[in-house]
Amino acid sequence: REVETPEGIALSLRCAGVVPRALAWLVDFLIRVAVVIGLGSVLGFFGVAGFGVYSIAVFLVFWGYFVVFEVWRDGQSPGKRAFGLKVVCDNGTPITWLPSMVRNLLRTVDFLPVLYVFGVCASLVDGSGRRLGDLVAGTLVVYAERATPRPPAPMVPPLRPPMPLQVDEQRAIIGFAERAPQMTPERQAELAEQLQPLTATRGAAAVAAVLGLANYLLGRR
Questions:
Q1: CA 59, 61, 63: angle at the middle one, nearest 5?
Q2: Burial code of 148-181, b = ≥16 C-beta within 10 A, e = fewer?
Q3: Which residues contact 147 (CB under 8 A, 6 or more apart)?
Q4: What is the pLDDT of residues 112-138, one digit of tens each?
Q5: Tell me: the pLDDT tens digits for 151-201?
Q6: Higher-confidence residue: 149 or 112?
Q7: Following CA atoms 6, 84, 95, 150 in sequence, which dihedral angle do they give, to the nearest 10 degrees?
Q8: Cα 88 to Cα 15, 47, 70, 112, 174, distances in angstroms
Q9: Cα–Cα distance measured from residue 134 to residue 127, given in angstroms and rounded to the nearest whole number
Q10: Residue 72: its pLDDT value, please?
Q11: Other CB atoms closer than 10 Å to residue 66's CB: what's the count?
Q12: Higher pLDDT, 160 or 82
């Protein structure tokens, strides 16, 4: 699903289908059942008062579980996190309280007549795999993008820049240092020599100088 943010940035969201969403729901269901059983075992010792508290707790666990996790945990309940899913607004922005409450209150409708038949049918018909609750709340269940960790800059003695550097220049130097292990020595030298006015060196010495600048900018002493 292609969406455009208010800032004019185009985003490509990978919408989740019925099977991964059902598996995520099953994990969350088992967690909620385990919590309810645990609460029942403890509150059962308090008689009628314990039963009253238990009834309230069951309501909160089954109806507030998804809302709390979706808003406070970046759209991911434990089940969704296990399968790499998350809930977002249909414009790609993080989900907020009102859409989360609407989509989860409408689970009652999606569940009809039994076992989410309405919800599954809606997901199969909709091009973005949305159930009725998602359509009303304006939300999507998508695959969470996992950022690939960037390698740290090589450890060489830090070198103080001989002149002030702009922010984009600092980012370029740090980016070079982080990617240097993936380059051949010849490519490292080729790029590092472009900063000869800054380093006054060439070849391997230029590479070491740029790496030193990066470590200084990263605060390594």
A1: 65
A2: eeeeebeebebbeeeeeeeeebbebbbebbbebe
A3: none
A4: 988 899 999 999 999 899 999 999 999
A5: 665 678 888 888 888 888 888 998 888 888 888 999 989 999 988 888 888
A6: 112
A7: -50
A8: 10, 42, 9, 24, 32
A9: 12
A10: 94
A11: 21
A12: 82
Task: Say how far apart CA 9 and CA 135 lie, in whole Å.
Answer: 23
> What pLDDT is recorded for position 102?
96
Q: How far apart are CA 89 and CA 141, in angstroms?
A: 9
3-state secondary structure at position 94:
strand
Quote the CA–CA distance of 46 and 206 in Å, as a whole number. Answer: 75
CA distance 134 to 120: 12
Token couple for 142: 């998508």
Tokens for 206, please give them.
Answer: 């230029």
Decide: helix, strand or coil at residue 2: strand
Identify the bridge partners of residue 86 per DSSP, sorted by sequence position: 142
pTM: 0.67
